[in-house]
Design a protein that fits this description.
2 domains; single chain; Nuclear Transport Factor 2, Chain: A; alpha+beta
């Protein structure tokens, strides 16, 4: 299919066009950079703002390249971030209880009130045998009552949800009214 092929241009023609365009760009750029149009190639009678080739070049205002630092009157920004308020009182007791359960530290959980929720330590600890982790959400504290919900993730991946409250006295859980939802 020779007729589908475009005719070839003579070599060198496109190079000449590229070279001419590049030279023209350099000349225009040099004139623009010079700004006033009064370079050594200008004739003495040329009008201000005209280039050596007689084309009118817009005036260019020279800008200073000096960079001055901003005034240092600004105050430094504090990088100290206050830590969130640590729970205290009954809320802290419930959170500490479940932190011990999640660590499988059943002796600490027993001392924080597990002994008031079950009569036998072995039965108490065994009750968490299939519990992988308990996530606690506290909705509020009303006196000694800590209103909460629990999301108990089981070792097989199932979840059990509970809601209710724990009653705390002197840093120990003394009662709970929780129901599965």
């Amino acid at each position: 299919m020779p007729d589908a092929i475009a005719p070839r241009r003579k070599p060198g023609r496109s190079r000449l066009l590229v070279a001419t365009t590049a030279v023209a760009a350099v000349v225009v750029g040099a004139v623009l950079i010079a700004g006033t149009g009064r370079g050594p190639a200008d004739s003495a009678d040329a009008a201000p703002g005209t280039g050596a080739v007689g084309t009118t070049v817009p005036s260019v205002t020279r800008l200073s390249t000096t960079v001055r630092p901003a005034p240092t009157t600004a105050r430094p920004i504090s990088t100290t971030v206050p830590s969130p308020r640590a729970p205290t009182g009954p809320e802290a007791t419930v959170l500490d209880y479940f932190a011990a359960v999640n660590r499988r530290d059943y002796s600490t959980a027993w001392a924080l009130g597990g002994r008031n929720l079950d009569t036998d330590f072995g039965h108490f600890a065994g009750g968490f045998a299939t519990t992988d982790q308990v996530r606690v959400t506290i909705f509020g504290v009303d006196g000694n009552q800590v209103h909460t919900s629990l999301d108990a993730v089981q070792t097989d991946g199932r979840r059990k949800a509970f809601t209710g409250f724990y009653e705390v006295r002197d840093g120990v859980i003394v009662a709970a009214r929780m129901r599965e939802v």
